[in-house]
Every structure is written in C-alpha cells, then in structure tokens.
C-alpha cells in the first residue's frame, strides 16, 4: 500500500464488500476504543458496534461508493481520515438511499483498525 | 465548552456563520499543517485554503446544517472529529445543494484549529 488515497480506496473496497457479504466479520476492524455513531446513536467497542451492524433491519445490502477522500489525520502517526459518500441499496429497493460515512484509521502492525466511524443517511 | 457534541455545535455554528458572512476571516482557524479537500482538490496551509475558499465562484452563500456528529479522535489529545451534513444555498438559488463536510479539530491554547477539512457536494 502507498499513499493515503490508495490506502483509503483499499480499505473502503474491503470494508463495504465485507459489510455487504457478511457484516459480522467486521469485528476484526474495530477495537475496544472504537466508536460508532450510527444515525446519531453512539456505540463503543468492537462487540457493541458489530452487534449494532448485524441487527440492522435489512437482509440484503449493497453499498455503491460515489466518492472517497483521504487525508493524514496526525502529524506523528500514519493515521488516516477517510470520508465516503455513496448509495445504499437495501433489500433490492428501487430507491437507493444517499449515505455519508467517515472513518479514522489507526495503523496497527501492518494493518489498520477503525477508531472513529460516523454514518449518516442524507435525505434530499 | 463541555462535551464533544457541545464543542462541535459551537464550532459548526461559528464556522458557517463566518463562512457565510466573510469567509476571508476563516484564516485564523487553519494552520500551515491544515489540509483541505474541496470537491477532491487538495490545498495545504492557511493561505492556500483561504485563497481557495474566497475565490469560490459565488457572491452569496448560506449553509443550512441538517446533522452534526462528533467523536473524540485521539486517545491522548482532546481532538475532535466533526461530521456535518446540510444544504448549501448559493446566490439565492431555489435549488439548494446537499453537502457533506468533515473536520478534525485540534486543541490549541483554549481554542481549536482545523487540521483536516473535507468538503463534498452530494448529488442525488
């Protein structure tokens, strides 16, 4: 992996592919310090976050990513701020929902974990 | 100021009020290390960022904030991740634009500066 944009793209592809196929497997991306704000509701720690994600009331979901932006988020650590916008197709609905999601990725060994995760639906 | 939500609200109110009234005054919120991604174009440092903001091709602008989310962004420093969504009314247009913006705020004396700033229009 190289610059922020490439790392962000790789993370976003991996994350939504995992989310759309089996979101219970996302647990390994979070730690006990991780925070999720899901439509304004706060969750802390891998267990609580994945419980929230796996109990969302849909069977089938597809993220279609429109934009990815990335910036280094610390002068001292190779952490990354990643902002995503796109469409969420829920249970094969013909009316995709706009979403916005922000992650902060923290380096950990040769990989990253998600410290911050903020998800919002955008209503037009 | 108290918790993340209150600080974020206070910052967002101040930032967009300043932006909508005289965006040249936003310079004091940025430092040389600050980064702006504006519709995918990168700018670094207070001078370059404010030059970009002040040369945006509109005379009159109004931000109508719909959602604000905030999370602490570091285990060691009182920095904050702030995610905003809302509507942008440009030159009194009857067709507001959806936007999404993310800030990372870093404490500095009794105040904060903006290290990260990512702005995107969201097209429905």
From TrEMBL, chains A, B:
Source organism, top-level taxon: Eukaryota
Protein known as: Nuclear transport factor 2
Primary role: Has a role in nuclear-cytoplasmic transport of proteins and mRNAs.
GO cellular component, one term: nuclear envelope
GO biological process, one term: protein import into nucleus
Main location, first listed in the record: cytoplasm
InterPro entries found in the cross-reference section: NTF2 (IPR045875), NTF2-like_dom_sf (IPR032710), NTF2_dom (IPR002075), Nuclear_transport_factor_2_euk (IPR018222)
CDD domains: NTF2
Subcellular compartments: Cytoplasm; Nucleus
Pfam families: NTF2 (PF02136)
Domain (NTF2) ranges: 7-121
Organism: Sistotremastrum suecicum HHB10207 ss-3
Alphabetic keyword roster: Cytoplasm, Nucleus, Protein transport, Transport
């Amino acid at each position: 992996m190289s610059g922020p944009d490439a790392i962000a793209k790789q993370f976003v592809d991996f994350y939504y592919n995992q989310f759309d196929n089996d979101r219970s497997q996302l647990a390994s991306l979070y730690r006990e310090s991780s925070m999720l704000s899901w439509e304004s509701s706060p969750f802390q720690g891998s267990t609580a976050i994945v419980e929230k994600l796996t109990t969302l009331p849909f069977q089938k979901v597809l993220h279609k990513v429109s934009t990815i932006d990335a910036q280094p988020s610390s002068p001292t650590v190779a952490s990354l701020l990643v902002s995503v916008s796109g469409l969420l197709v829920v249970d094969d609905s013909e009316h995709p929902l706009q979403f916005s999601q922000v992650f902060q990725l923290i380096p950990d060994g040769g990989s990253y974990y998600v410290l911050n995760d903020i998800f919002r639906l955008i209503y037009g």
